[in-house]
User: What shape does this take?
Amino acid sequence: MRNEAVVFVLLALFATFYVSSFTGLFTGIPTTHANRIIDGDTIEIAGGEKVRLIGIDTPERGQHFYGEAKERLSELIGGREILLKPDVTDKDKYGRLLRYVFLNRTELVNIMLVREGLARALSIEPDTKYEKEIAEAESYARSRGLGIWTYANDPELFCIGIYYLRYNAIGDDRDNLNDEYVEFRNHCDHNLDMTGWRVEDSTGKEYVFGEFMAKSKEMFKLRTGAGDDGPENVFWNSRVPVWNNAGDRLRMWNRAGQLVLDYEYQSQ
Ligand SMILES: [Ca+2]
Ligand SMILES: [Ca+2]
Assistant: This one.
């Protein structure tokens, strides 16, 4: 027994040296941790910088699986040491670091989320180092109908996300109604007919879309005040603010009455 114990200790020592030489691959890249999980693909790290995970796209606020993706990311990396690895581009146009997030120096969180159906692959040149692995993870989740792929055959529940909700207009909201708006984005590869879709706040104020086509991959705004509808802006024509600055809830239904978005916020 004693000999076996010695062998075990030697093996453990060897393993330690082996692992340290392996992690030498990441030499020069310090570990960090997440201060805050902003959403399924964005975090804030120690020091306050924001990091956008490369190669993936998680559901946006209000969309199905938005909360699940955010919770899962929090579960995976919350309170743990992570290692951030860049590709070609250092920062995106919003000033966020573009990074691959490694857990235990070996597990790529970006891929894990895709494989669980909590994120889609989003390949943007030139940052495509793991493009193939991420695409494979997406096929895996897709073929099993995991997470967001539950809705893959129901684009009406899948395409529209809230990109930005500007509930607090500059100055007094009552005098600046069109600076209060919701910016939506159609994520899908095809245009989406939203005619007859409804948006409602927590008090039952309702907007019904007239004839409107959401262009593929494009954004458009629903502004509170009056104006002429176009492809980029539609107008609620409300005489008072809609989105409460202290907190509110946005829900959206398609023409068939299915709930597409459900998003609650509180002012920060
Ligand atoms: Ca407001
Ligand atoms: Ca204001």
User: Anything to note?
Assistant: Residues 155-266 form a domain with the Immunoglobulin-like fold (CATH 2.60.40.1260). Residues 13-24 have pLDDT under 50 and may be disordered. The longest helix spans residues 2-23. Helices lie at 2-23, 66-77, 109-115, 131-143.
